[in-house]
Amino acid sequence: MDFETLKEWFTLKNVLTLLEDYRSFGIVPGIVLPLLESFLPILPLFIFVMANAAAFGLWKGFIISWAGACIGSLLVFYLARKVGQKRFFAFLSRHPKVRQLMNWVERHGFGPLFLFYCFPFTPSAAVNVVAGLSRVSIQQFALAVIFGKMVMIFTISFIGYDIVSLVKQPLRTVFVVIVVFLLWYVGKLVEARFSFAEQEERS
């Protein structure tokens, strides 16, 4: 199974079925799915969070997704920092755009990391690695992950905890579509703002 086929398999219906099939494992599958997304960014975190909220309820689903996403991000950060001098990571850190983002994170610390993690469509997996390769402190990174992902995951959980109503209440479906679009749009604005600010500082 190639990556594209794997990505297409992870629909909301399939993930809900997966959680139901492994219900005997309790909350473990719900934690593992968002944790894996930290390592494999092609996986749909948005779908995992919505499925957890629908399967476990709003608050429990939110906490499960939040725990998995935070643990995954911290593990990626730790691994990138520990093996940052190895061949692949050394090559990656010399890439101009990666170096640019590393410099930005090192200078501004908590702020840009927090904003990146607030939005579900920003490349958080890449940010995890870049932060690990940078000199940002573990304390700053952990706080940004914990609070940024809290905002993002609760928003998605709120959308996903009552999937049935999205079908029965068209107005709510329209509202959800608007919220998803705004999250995507604002996330792109944040990315563009950071790139613009970095270019200004370099000029």
From TrEMBL:
Question: What Pfam families does its record include?
Answer: VTT_dom
Q: Per UniProt, which keywords does this protein have?
A: Cell membrane, Membrane, Transmembrane, Transmembrane helix
Topology within the bilayer: Multi-pass membrane protein
Statement: the UniProt record of this protein carries the keyword Metal-binding: no
The portions of this protein that span the membrane are: 27-49, 61-80, 114-134, 141-164, 170-187
VTT domain location is: 44-161
Q: Which domain of life does the protein's organism represent?
A: Bacteria
User: What is this protein's record name?
Assistant: TVP38/TMEM64 family membrane protein
The protein's organism comes out as [Anoxybacillus] calidus
